[in-house]
Design goal:
Order of helices and strands: HHHEHEHEEHEEEEEHEE
Helix content: 10-25%
CATH architecture of the largest domain: 3-Layer(aba) Sandwich
CATH topology of the largest domain: Rossmann fold
Shape: globular
CATH superfamily of the largest domain: Vaccinia Virus protein VP39
Strand content: 25-35%
Structural class: alpha/beta
Largest sheet: 7 strands, mixed
Number of strands: 11
Distance between the termini: 31 Å
Length: 246
Amino acid sequence: MPDQLFTDPGLAALYDLFNPWRATGDLGFYLPKVLAAEAVLDVGCGTGMLLHAARQAGHTGRLCGLDPAAGMLEQARRRTDIEWIHGDLGSVAFDREFDLVVMSGHAFQVFVTDEELRHALAAIRSALTGHGRFAFETRNPAARPWERWTAEHVREVTDASGAAVRMWHEVDVPVSGEIVRFTTTFTSTAWDAPRTSRSTLRFLDAAGLSAFLTGAGLVTEEQFGDWAGNPLTDSSPEIITIARRA
């Protein structure tokens, strides 16, 4: 789930545990692209998992992580050989500095309004070099993944103290249009009370996404439906896009 659920410092320390699939999912897909780029900006970098892996794999160029959540960056800053910025795309002004801008972990979906999307894409285009690429993913609305975000689908991890922490989502119904709102609940026997988080995500289809990219002066170069690189279909779980300056 998106990093915004883990803005609490205590929960941020659990983010990687709750998302083990990413090692062979989105991070496995993006890492070779990061390693092939001289300068990389990771927007919504979270705990820094992707950039940590890139440096560990031998990347010697510029790696920059941007995230508005201080708790997540506290985890990311365990590596000091990477540039970490506390903020969002509205608080930076990059000018053709990065060969690759990446948004992983479905972070792109937190741009809910048209205005937010336009501002974000304009900032990303500005950050790209002339030959740069923007790589990101959004969940395919045709697959209706939110229908599985229910209290019956509980996930559990063990924290550093050995205590079990449970997490589940409950979607506001009915869902109408592109916007999905939901509550995430975390519980642990080591806590006095549950912790909850409210989130809102936008589910753009491929056509809507293409319109926003075109409006921002970007063009889709490649698009895939899953992390294995298969073509995008109506049943694909993801809309994975590689875009460049038009």
